[in-house]
Amino acid sequence: MTDTPIETPTAHPRWVLPVVGACIVALIVANNVGNVVWASWLETNPLGLIALNSSNKYLLGTSITTEVVPFFVIATIRLMLPDPLFWWLGHSYRDKALNWGRQIFPGMDPIFDQFEGDRTGFKNLLHVLIVIMPNNPVCLLAGVAAIPFRRFIVLSLVGTIGRIAIMRGIGMVFEDQIEDVLDFVAKYQVWLTRGSIVAVLAYVA
Prior knowledge:
The chain is an all-alpha fold.
């Protein structure tokens, strides 16, 4: 067990952090826009929807209305975009990034605690986590743990493609049920869109 902080690497030019931050904010905005337009885009512009927001529910909803190749390409790019950004934050700011992550991802406190309790041992577990759940806090921890970038990207890519394949497979199995949902969404599209706007505004507030 060790609480020894990881040494902070050489500082980057001042403009880099604002650019990374702006990219993260842009992705958050895209997510929220997707949460607003999903009811109208689910059938009319499914690829555009997953380009904005590739959460599991939208991957499932678009799995039966899209071609395989564009579905995989667009979803993979969209899901991979934030990964190197959060890895860079963790790798560049280490303990500061860890403290920031605790504030931004409060639900991940147990994982952050385990990481701080035994960073060396947890680093091996991180390789598995990157594959099975390459989300933002895991990518941040991968950077803090100084997992080599190339290895990180390969693991994240494998996990991301696996996740998309699972969603596509589930969609094929439950195609009839998803079609029923799409019919419901089309019938109540206006009300669902209005409700989505209210929900997103409340979330942002």
